[in-house]
Amino acid sequence: MELTAKQLAEILHGTVEGNPEAKVTSFAKIEHGKPGQLCFFANPKYEQYVYTSRASVLLVNLDFQPKQPVTTTLVRVENAYSALADLLKYMSEQKKKYRRRRSLRSRIAWSAKLGKRVSVGDFVTIGKDCVIGEGTIIHDNVTIGAGTKIGSYCIIYPGVHIFPGMVIGDRVILHAGCIIGDDGFGNAQQPDGSWRKIEHVGNVIIGNDVEIGSNTTVDRAPMESTIIGDGVRIDNLCQIAHNVIIGKHTVMAAQTGIAGSAQIGEYCVIAGQVGIVGHIKVADHTTIGAQAGVIGAVRKPGETLLGMPAIPHRTFMKAYAKFKHAGEEE
Questions:
Q1: Can you say whether the dihedral through the CA atoms of 314, 315, 317, 318 is positive or negative?
Q2: Which helix (H) or strand (E) holds 9?
Q3: What SS3 state is found at 12?
Q4: What is the DSSP track for 81-117?
Q5: Beta carbons within 10 angstroms of residue 92's beta carbon
Q6: Residues contacting 70, CB < 8 A, separation 6+
Q7: pLDDT over 70 (residue 196)
Q8: Do 134 and 115 contact (CB within 8 A), yes or no?
Q9: What are the distances in angstroms from CA 17 to CA 58, 161, 322?
Q10: Long-range contacts: 236-244, Cβ < 8 Å, 24+?
């Protein structure tokens, strides 16, 4: 990113006070601002930094009246905090804009069908009979297995591995290093105590408008499908086991693990480091607090659960009020 104060003012419908050619290439907090950076001032308790900041450009509200000389170029906008959000959105959209590219260092099977304006980075492998929709961007070092179907306007970041036969909807974002469709952890114990691998021949189906974080793994099913519903958001470093079903618009924070064949309802909120056992159902609109362990079915929609094993949060807090003092001397 390189923008001048004048360009920033045009994007944000503001006015420049100072050098219109002042350039910025990155963002910073106002207390950390350095030359070449853009900061913003919206909270009065940080006003002292307006006068000491070395940032090249500072976003401020229209009604801000400095009490001391200001050396930084100001871009005055109606609401600095909202303007920053608008600018971040603008920058994100610029990164996602299609840039026509079909790297000669990629390997695309002749039978693969790529839609209009599909971008393919370096060292990408696209297998036989793949179908990739219009406007999808595939970054470097991505592997897409044979027979996989990917929708339109997806973004697949570097190092993603998609195994054969997966189905991915429209506008899906797969962040760096995530794996879609490796074998689930399926093993059958033998009479002598050894384990025999269960082959996985199912797939993963991901709906529309899903975002999956870096280094998250979604396992394929031994039979049928692992299903991620429309609008689901999964953070980094999560594990979704074989045959799991996640209902639409559920969100899941980092380091959560869901065991095989669990069914998670719609519009659920799952906090970080939650563990959910297999073969249970979790009702719609359930909220599960951080580090909770769900070991049984959640049948009542809208509950909030805490603890290990997870119980309703009111019950947990009453118990906590007692056991936090259990070891104290009387």
A1: positive
A2: helix 5-12
A3: helix
A4: HHHHHHHHHHHHHHHHS----B-TTSEE-TT-EE-TT
A5: 9
A6: 18, 50, 51, 58
A7: yes
A8: yes
A9: 10, 49, 60
A10: 236/175, 237/213, 238/213, 240/216, 241/184, 241/185, 241/278, 242/183, 242/184, 242/185, 242/186, 242/200, 242/202, 243/184, 243/202, 244/219
Residue with tokens 């070891």: 327
Active site residue: 139, 161, 200, 242, which one?
242
Predicted structure pTM score: 0.79
Where do we find the tokens 């997966």? 166
310 in Cβ contact with 290 (< 8 Å): no
Residue 98 pLDDT more than 60?
A: no
AA identity, residue 37: Q
User: Across residues 201-218, what is the average pLDDT?
Assistant: 97
303: its two tokens: 């509950």
214: number of Cβ within 10 Å:
17
What b/e sequence results for 108-141 when a residue is b if at least 16 CB atoms lie within 10 Å of its CB, and e otherwise? beeebebeeebbbbeebbbbeebebbebbbbbbb
The distance between the two most distant Cα atoms of the chain, rounded to a whole number of Å, is: 83
Q: Which of 84-93, 115-124, 311-320 has the lowest mean pLDDT?
A: 84-93
One-letter amino acid at 1 equals M
Distance CA 58, CA 77 (A): 10
Q: Residue 110 corresponds to which amino acid?
A: W
Q: Does the pLDDT value for residue 100 go beyond 80?
A: no
Tokens of 4: 């001048």
Domains plus CATH for the chain?
Answer: 3-96 (3.40.1390.10), 107-319 (2.160.10.10)
Q: How many CB atoms lie within 10 A of CB 300?
A: 11
Residue 139 designated active-site: no
